[in-house]
Amino acid sequence: MKFPSYYSKKTSQFYELKNDMLIAATDKIPVKNGIPRFVGNENYASAFGEQWKKYRTIQLDSHIGEPISRTRMERCFGNELFSQLKGSTVLEAGCGAGRFTEVLLEEGAYVTSFDLSDAVDANVLNAPIDDTHRIFQGDITAIPFKEQQYDFVVCLGVIQHTPNPEKTIEHLFQQVKPGGSLIIDHYTYTLSYYTKTTGILRFFIKRLSPEKGMKVTEKITNIFFPLHKAVRKVYPLQALLSRISPIHAYFFAHPNLKIEDQYQLSLLDTHDSLTDWYKHHRTKGQLSKFLEKIGGINVYAAKSPHGIDARCDRPNR
């Protein structure tokens, strides 16, 4: 099976690879480390690039020995769609270091992964480029393919961090083939959203350079993680602490993980939550209505531990 070819909407021509450059008429795209770079590294996702390169393997199921990413992806797809991955073409938007890339490839899909940040350099180390996987660095609102090219378009843990979630979803849906499916998730409103100290700290930390932001979030984690660890077996205290603590801890969600893995996950997700430039929230109803508005059918949306899981299909012609 061949991947859809890179395509320039500016010139209405396909790119050709020549001497480490993708060339389409007057457009030239550099290829570095085997990865086409349709954008530069300086953008609102720069901090994400730093975190994925530093914590490259901690979210991989193969690293921590628990099917955390697989379970989440199966839930978002639903059993029927997940069983159809083998041999399908998948566009994975906001791939990060490749926690979901790993699962998609294990299921036998032909995966095109991309990210706005240079997290793609971590992804290529975790899931090397081969006949079933390719990677590019690019923007969701300027995806370099003709429309309706993929059986599945997947975007998990990303849309809430983009400038305009609805615009993001619309561009993702444009890539879904007739009869194909869009699988997404999104933050929703929770009690802890209003009670945690994250919002106050984030206002200042997200304005720091990626390097300084990393150092600050590590210091904050090192202060609060021992507190979470101390009350990890006392649910009322852990629940109370989680309502106000600015860090993420997973002692109750993933009790079988080693303490060091718990700590690394806390470092990663605390940095993620305190340095993201955009943090949007949507309700189940808002997502459902928008998926219907852009032409999706068989719309599904449900609350989950990560907010709202949602999916829809593109009608067959």
What is this structure's SSE topology?
Blueprint: E1 7-8, E2 13-14, E3 16-17, E4 21-24, E5 27-32, E6 35-36, H1 46-54, H2 61-64, H3 68-77, H4 79-82, E7 89-93, H5 99-106, E8 110-115, H6 120-126, E9 133-137, E10 150-155, H7 165-174, E11 176-186, H8 191-195, H9 198-205, H10 210-230, H11 235-244, H12 259-275, H13 284-293, E12 297-304, E13 307-313
Parallel strand pairs: 7-8, 7-10, 8-9, 10-11
Antiparallel strand pairs: 1-2, 3-4, 4-5, 5-6, 11-13, 12-13
Helix pairs in contact: 1-10, 1-12, 10-12
**Class from helix and strand fractions:** alpha/beta
Largest sheet: 7 strands, mixed
Q: CA-to-CA gap between the ends?
A: 22 Å
- The CATH topology of the largest domain comes to Rossmann fold
Strand content: 15-25%
